[in-house]
Each structure stands twice: as structure tokens, then as C-alpha cells.
């Protein structure tokens, strides 16, 4: 491994330049500012890793601040889920903050702007305001209410706050420039009437501040030095700075907004609105459905926090948006689970093997290595008996020399057990193989040290003992969409690309040690993939989710013409 220091990303270069220009290192403060209107997704994970990673690098505090300014869409459930996800990813915040903590201060500042003639109450409808905005090439026109007196504006604003008006009757707008080339600077709305209970302030407020007014001022109140957001907010930076100009005191830290590129993930969507649509229309079973790109969904599917952090570190921080292939995320979870996941045996599409020369009623317990990647993982005992299950695809009556699994007249080694030879097979009325009759070499037991045990055969199969195995529900998850970018087609709905095979539910037969597994435990089912115990599991019925296969099968699909 190289000992060269890791190069800085462009955000870190900005911070280093600010420090070189006199910003005290002890003043550094960052924040992660989610809106509690849905569950966090893999895109948020990059932002979490960026902000909290900067906090760790510079030993600076990082606030977790909820931008909770829209009670129509926000819920305590989302707040709790966000906190759970950030903690699960391995990060701790300095203080837990809410934009709603600052409602009174924001209101007081809005009153100050009105008194200075820099804000006013507009009584037009939203359609009228939008029509007067102009276009990127044509200036907007002033509201007929733009020159209301300070006294009239203050009176109307007070009554808005007191709930005297219905929703949509009035808004408060900043008085900036209706001819600005930046459309966001054309007298943006600061407040609207919204008579809905807030998850923290209940019905204390009948007006709620808009995001652009709230965000920068909240950064300022918290003395955040670097406010990092995605590229869609680049045009908002001018407004962010204008609002700060109205309240900034030179003795305090002035926040700096800088933007980085959103990293979109293939074969999924990361718009909260579209994710909510998937939930509400029953395409998935909830925000934590393992098919979802939410952090909760990935956790339930069996992803590890380390794999997601490593993924975020690999894709890095960039200035240009691009589409990241989901196979990179899958690579990182395979790489980590390969190191930590115990190896176990399960058969998902069984066919019975009967060892004809094995003593009837006899059973033995064999040593099986838990993880060859981890010397400390030790061994476990697995039962062996006369009747076994193997995977149906692991047997053919006839096969060419490249087929290294079981075939009539051929030999394979059973993992951790014996070498067997297929002698014959039995079929049902439809021609399906229902039983394979084999013989075994009693001296070929794995690890016994005999000459027969050292004999080389090309195939090794996993198996379970029929009398000892238990049935479990196996949920085979795959990519949610068949198209790599389902929401970029102009004439098609993203739901048209939902993968009908994103979930298949089957019954598997598992070795008995897995009966003791706890919810969230992760395993490698040998030769099949990585699986974890789902929260739906009960003492009577275990449920396992496939996290990812052992290999990227989609790569082969993409290669086909």
C-alpha cells in the first residue's frame, strides 16, 4: 500500500486557503442539514461523509441541523430515522439543532428588513407573482404592493403571524431587484401563511420561513464556517450572501456557501419525491424496503456502514455531476463482507442426494471453517448424514469436461466432508430429477490427513443434511430498475422501468447453526452470495435477505448485444 498522503479535494483546498488567510482553526464548524421530509438515501451518505469527515479531519464540531420549515411534509418519524442513519454510519454530531429553534430570531430579522424598506408584504396570488417574474432574458415587473409603507407592511406581517389571514392571502418578499439576471434575486418569497401543526412547535406559528431565508441565517446563528451543498444550490449562493449581508456583524464568523456535485447512482432514483411515490403506490413496502436506495433500506438489506463510507470515499467530491454505476457500491459491500461475514451453507433450489453406502441412521458432526479471511473466526460443527440437499444446478446427467460439478459417473468433494460419486438418479413423471444416488469414500474426509482425503477432484459443492436443515424464507433482492437512469427519459415515467424481478421470495434449507442468528447478522452462503437476517424473522420463521451475489451478474448482461 502506498504511503503517499492522500491528495486534498477541492473543498479541502478551500478550507486550507481560508485557514492560510487568517480564519482561526478553532472557529471551523460544519453542519449536515437534512430536511425531515423523507428518509436519507445513498446520495445523502456522500454529504454525511463529507461534512462529518471534515469535522474529523480538522477536529471541528459538526452540527446535525434539521431544516424543518415545511410542516406539510415533515414528520418526527423522519427526524428519528435520520438520526438513526447518521449514527449507524458511524458519526456523532456536536449539537442537534432545528431551524424551528430560530423561528423567533428569523421573524425579528424579517421585521428589521421591513423597517429598513428591504422587505414587503405582497398580496398577490402565486400565479400572479410567477407571471411577474419575467424570464431569463426579460426582466420582471414590480408587484403593485412593492411600495407599501413600512407601517402597512408591519401591520400585515403581524396579522399574518397571528393567523388573521388564510393560506395564500399574503407572502413576505425581499425587495431586491426584479431585473436581476439571477431569477432567484427577483424579490424572493421569505414567508408564507401555512396553518398546519409543526412536529416541534405545534400550532405556535401560522407563518413559516422559506428555505433560502432560513438556511443561511441558521448557518450564521450557529457560526458555521463552511456551508456545503449540492450544485443545484449554486444559483442560490448570491441570495444566500444577500440575506447574510442584512444581518452580518463583522465581529462574528460569516458562513461561506460552496457547492459540490451530486453523485447519482445507476438503476435507482434518489429524488425524495419519487422515493415517496414508490412507497405510496406500493411499488415497495416502505422507506426501509431493501430495494430502496435509502440508508435504512441498505442497512436492512445487509450493507455495512464501512462499505458505504468506503464507497463515498472512492467516488470522492467533484464539481461535475455524473452517474456512478451501482456495481461500485456492490463491490465495496462484497469486499467488506468477504472479510467479516462467517461462511455458512444453505441450499436454495434443492435436489436430494442419497449416499447409498453410508450407514442408515448414522450422523456425524464435521468441523467447518467460519471465515478463511479471519484467523480468529474459528470453526463450527455441521451435521452430516445419509440424505443431503445440494443445488439443483450442481447436477447434470451428462456434461462436458468444463462442467466441474456433479454428473453421472463423476466425483466432487462435499465442502468440509467427503468425496462422492454420482451413480444414478431418479426422475418424476415430468422428467424432473428428484433424487441422485451416490456413493462416498469413507477415507476421504476433509482434514483427516489420509491419502484419500488429499486426492484432488475439480469440483467442491455446498450441501445441507436433510434431517438437520431448517426451512427459511429467502428474499432475493436485485436492482430496483432495469434502466440505469430511469428518471431521465423525457417521454416515459420512471415507474415504467421498475424491475419485475427486483424481489423473488423462495424457501431455502439452511444449516442448523443459523437458527441462533440475530436480526441484522450477516453471512456468506457459500457459492451463493451474502445474506442477512431480516427484522421480519421470528422464532418460528427465519427470513434472510440477499445483500449481493458473489459476482456482478449485471456486467455479463450489459456485455450481451
TrEMBL record:
Keyword Ligase applies: yes
Organism of derivation: Meishania litoralis
Name this polypeptide is given: Glutamine--tRNA ligase/YqeY domain fusion protein
Domain of life: Bacteria
Keywords of the record: Ligase
